[in-house]
Task: structure prediction
Amino acid sequence: MTDPAPVPILMYHAVATDPNDATRALSVTPEAFAEQMALVADRGLTPVGTAELAAAWRSGRPLPARPVLITFDDGYEGVHRHALPVLAKHGFAATLFVSTGWLRGPYDTGGALDTMLDWDQVRELAGAGVEIGGHSHTHPQLDQLDDDRLRSELILCKEIVSDQLGSVPASFAYPYGYSSRRVRQAVRETGYAQALAVGNALARRRQGPYALRRLTVRRSTGPEEFERLLQGRAIGRVFARDRALTKGYAVLRRARQVRGRVVAARS
Ligand SMILES: [Zn+2]
Result:
């Protein structure tokens, strides 16, 4: 059997006019997001959900012509404020991967990098047809954790999403894109049916359901680069820069985490 056509999976983070320094590089402006979605529509691409893609690849069922995935990580407030109206206007499917300990509300661990969604907004997104997936509880590098912490990050996230939304999340995205065989197995055993990595390549069925690659959309991504991303081109050129960005993001986050801990210890 031949491998089905590869699929671009777009990875967004914040959609914000004025993001803070920690989220700026990986954010997009509301205007850029609207332009990019108009381009997706113009090119005749059909956004599908993460669970839908994986199910089709598992079963051999056909997907719509020219599928694309639109995904958001972490759970920034702008996904509700800015992205949802654009998605709704086009009738586009999308997936939001939430770090449950970063969202505003009863489970907030104080580690979030910027203004996050609250659970009413997440429910509203789900009600509008956005698939809600897991992205751990406190957004650690999962491959650095011992087994107990790894399991609790995965289980807590799944249970909180299930409690808040009344349905079990089926898809997962690895924080920072990091996974290992042990992490992928734990994600599968927690009950997630598929998981997304990062990798600046088109997703292909042969990557396996727990290592589907995604394309990073950045604040610096102009319309031409966005088109090349959709086609899986220009990927080598941006790869080194992207790795540095992702690493910088991890370092920034660690620094904030340490500061957060100091503040918490004082109060
Ligand atoms: Zn993340």
